[in-house]
Design brief:
The complex is a heterodimer of chains A (184) and B (647). With 184 residues, chain A is α/β, with parallel strands linked by helices. Helix content of chain A is 38%, strand content 23%. Classes of the chains: A alpha/beta (184), B mainly beta (647).
């Protein structure tokens, strides 16, 4: 019996090493919270109309400062379709261009300098989403809020209009609050 | 034996494929949120709950917690709640017969395990009679379950006496999480058949509902060693759940369940004659929650349930709890609440416990303070003050210290907990004739004090990478005042003539001792399409026995389990679960391996088909022995087929 247990321990240790080796090559699963946020983001896309001429055939979702959300998006982006458009994901945490993005997710853990949108960013036809506190009260369009352990969201319609986006009533109904007017 | 060895060899390569790690990460549950719509997503918890009922990320919980998710349950092919609980590390689950189970934590695993608290949606479901959980009637369609949280170690400081060695909280799905219609059917090689219909939808804009109806039947297993089979068991069950949100953001939940169960698979412990159980049972639960951004959360829950177990008892229980959480300052969060339970029973004449009817009221209050000591370290202090009918006030304090870093946490905890005396221990009055004029008498003791435990625990969690998560904990439990039967001196009773001699065995607070153990769990994802998890639980105890040699059947050996889930192709998933259970310390249940495997096919997003085998290694094995009061059956190899169709 003791020998059997020892063998199991050895096996487990072996597999532990094995999986660690793989860890750098394969992405593990993002946290439940990140997966949820990514799923929200996918759903938001269904409710948004971008200005007439699409720059790209697919929908490009860019992520800044939220590696977990980025990974979660990446995992399901292959399968997901918004209307007829497939979804692509780009990490723009290193300062990559966001001109051709359709949506931008900004992680709150990236620090305040990241969650404040630059004026030129706020003017792009870009659905901006963040879990940073007060995001939708400033320049952002959708702010994710954790309330009682559930995710809720606030929408700033003025900021959406400024970006040239149309958000359908279905989404507005589900929002915890809809702001119109920025409070700087 | 040879056959077993052959099987073992045959499966050894398989074994290597699944051998790995244990886990504990709810946060890493492989749920596919991407397929859910917003209404469903809005009902999903961001983080897991229970340890102090306020919800916390797993890294900040100063207790060993494991969450069995709905997905874990599906993959393991579990068809009953105890089978699902078996997926958690450090838990002892042993099947006695098709409807009876032993579920224990950190030792003390026998049929009437009295040191683990089982909760269903936050409502305690054990009976104060003998601490039984009537698993035959607690069952429900597995699709109703959102998750099962298993917390090892004392939870008395929050949940009151009985959570001495741990808490198992079964949480059902929110209505919004199961919208649409679903039909599920299952067949197995042991004459098992189930059919479940479910419908979920919306009433107005703020209320979601779900209703289900379920029929289930199962054949009996052969008894060990008599090979006799008794009748089958069956049940019809129905349930309804409503979840709503008011205009002010308050949330309310109503859950109602009822069932009619029939069981002819059980032998009477005294007469060894088959007994037919007919159980008509129902429960209703209402919950109200208010979360305010100003830093006060409140929750109020009221529930009623009726259990009807003909051989044992009929019992009505009313349960009330209120809790509030206040962010008192930047560094302190205060949680406090009150609990009240009113439980009245009418015992079956067959079990000889006095008085035959009793009402027990238990009320208490609890308060916990979480104090930040710097940015990464928190001290949690709390206690439950609870009053019960048998021993009066009991104080159950707890102190925890936790240090968290990015993807790491280290914690230590010390708790005092008690287990209050049971109805049986208080009022047993059972006599057996052992020779003409000579009787043995099992006698309750109204003077009993509570059993006490002082528990020391340490643990660590480490997210090594995105693909590897480790969880380790160690414990040392000192038990005092343990309740055991003590043989008294023979008494001669002259009345009635011609008199008789009685050998009494009286429940007394006589034993003390300790248990200790180490639990290691890990979860790994070598590839996006392949996940592994596993655990090892090592357990030691000082030997203890009563003077009758009955012993405290604490009985577990070391345990090991490994799970593998691989997405072979897009629509095909292969799952394998391997369990090792060491010999029970009383020596009458040999160590055994258990291997379950399943192939699941998802032809479309609306259809799931699964075929599988439970206990594939051997034609039959035994899981319970002296730690069971009811007759023990052999647990057979079972093949099953399941089909689920969504509309």
């Amino acid at each position: 019996m003791r020998a059997t247990v020892t063998r199991c321990v050895a096996l487990m240790l072996f597999f532990g090493c094995f999986t660690t080796l793989h860890a750098n090559e394969e992405q593990g699963s993002p946290s439940r919270e990140s997966q949820l946020k990514a799923a929200y983001l996918f759903n938001f896309l269904k409710f948004v109309d971008w200005p007439a001429t699409p720059a790209r055939a697919d929908l490009l979702v860019c992520v800044r400062g939220a590696p977990g959300v980025h990974d979660a998006l990446k995992r399901s982006s292959g399968k997901a379709k918004i209307g007829t458009r497939t979804v692509a994901v780009r990490d723009v945490g290193g300062g990559q261009a966001i001109n051709d993005c359709n949506a931008l997710y900004v992680g709150s853990d990236a620090g305040p300098e990241w969650t404040l949108l630059k004026a030129e960013e706020a003017a792009l036809p870009l659905l901006t989403v963040s879990d940073a506190e007060g995001f939708a009260l400033r320049d952002g369009i959708i702010e994710l809020v954790t309330e009682n352990n559930r995710l809720r969201f606030n929408i700033n319609l003025d900021n959406a209009r400024r970006a040239g986006l149309r958000i359908s009533a279905g989404l507005l109904q589900l929002a915890a609050s809809v702001e119109s007017g920025t409070h700087k | 034996m040879n056959e077993m060895a052959m099987h073992s060899r045959k499966f050894s390569s398989l074994l290597i494929a699944v051998a790995c790690s244990a886990f504990t990460q709810a946060a890493r549950a492989q749920e596919n949120f991407a397929d859910l719509d917003l209404a469903a997503l809005m009902q999903m918890d961001v983080k897991v709950t229970t340890v102090s009922k306020s919800e916390q990320s797993i890294y900040s919980v100063a207790a060993p917690i494991h969450v069995v998710t709905a997905e874990d349950i599906r993959r393991a092919g579990a068809s009953s709640i105890p089978e699902a609980i078996r997926l958690a590390p450090g838990v002892v689950v042993a099947q006695i017969d098709p409807g009876k189970w032993i579920v224990g934590l950190r030792g003390f695993a026998w049929q009437y395990a009295n040191k683990a608290l089982i909760l269903l949606d936050g409502r305690a479901v054990y009976s104060p009679l003998n601490s039984s959980v009537y698993w035959n009637s607690l069952d429900m369609p597995m699709g109703e379950i959102e998750r099962i949280e298993v917390i090892r170690g004392p939870g008395d400081a929050r949940w009151g006496s009985h959570a001495v060695n741990g808490i198992i909280n079964i949480i059902t799905k929110a209505a919004a999480d199961s919208q649409g219609s679903e039909l599920a059917a299952a067949l197995d090689s042991n004459a098992g058949r189930t059919l479940t219909a479910r419908n979920g939808g919306r009433i107005g804009s703020n209320v979601n509902y779900r209703a289900y109806a379920n029929y289930f039947e199962q054949g009996d297993f052969a008894m060990a060693p008599a090979r006799e089979r008794l009748g089958d068991r069956s049940a019809v069950r129905a349930g309804l759940r409503l979840d709503g949100t008011s205009a002010s953001g308050d949330r309310f939940t109503l859950i109602g369940e009822l069932q009619n169960g029939r069981d002819t698979s059980t032998l009477d412990g005294q007469s060894f004659a088959p007994v037919r159980y007919d159980a008509n049972e129902w429960s209703a639960l209402g919950r109200w929650e208010r979360a305010r951004s100003a830093g006060v959360d409140q929750q109020l829950q009221l529930s009623f349930d009726r259990i009807s177990q003909p051989f044992y008892e009929e019992r009505d229980t009313l349960d009330f709890s209120y809790q509030a959480r206040i962010e008192a300052s930047a560094v302190q969060t205060l949680t406090f609440g009150v609990t009240y339970k009113h439980s009245s029973d009418a015992l079956s004449a067959a079990i000889a416990i006095e008085p035959a009817r009793m009402t027990q009221e238990t009320y208490g209050l609890f308060a916990h303070d979480s104090i930040a000591l710097g940015a990464r370290t928190r001290l949690l202090l709390g206690s439950q003050f609870e009053h019960n009918r048998f021993t009066g006030w009991e104080i159950q304090p707890n102190a925890q210290l936790i240090h968290t870093r990015e993807r790491q946490s280290y914690w230590a905890s010390v708790s005092r907990a008690v287990r209050t005396p049971l109805r049986t221990e208080n009022g047993f009055a059972l006599e057996f004739l052992i020779a003409p004029g000579v009787f043995a008498r099992t006698q309750g003791n109204p003077q009993l004090e509570s059993e006490e435990i002082l528990a020391w625990e340490i643990g660590a969690r480490w997210g090594v990478s995105d693909a590897l998560f480790l969880d380790a904990s160690a414990f040392y439990n000192q038990y005092d005042n343990l309740i055991l039967q003590q043989a008294g001196a023979p008494i001669f009773e002259p009345d009635p003539a011609p008199g008789r001699t009685v050998f009494p065995a009286i429940y007394t607070n006589t034993a003390s001792g300790h248990t200790s153990g180490v639990e290691l769990a890990l979860k790994a994802q070598p590839m996006a399409s392949w996940s592994l998890s596993g655990s090892i639980s090592l357990f030691r105890q000082t030997p203890w026995q009563d003077s009758l040699g009955h012993g405290l059947v604490t009985g577990i050996g070391h345990q090991f389990q490994a799970h593998s889930s691989a997405q072979i192709v897009r629509s095909l998933q292969w799952n394998a679960d391997l369990y090792y259970t060491g010999a029970v310390t009383t020596g009458d249940v040999p160590a055994y391996w258990k291997f379950d495997t399943q192939l699941a096919w998802f032809p479309t997003s609306e259809v799931q088909v699964a075929i599988g085998v439970r206990n594939a290694f051997s034609a039959e094995h035994r899981e319970a022995g002296a730690n069971s009061v009811d007759a023990v059956t052999m647990i057979p190899r079972t093949a099953y087929l399941r089909i689920l169709r969504r509309f």
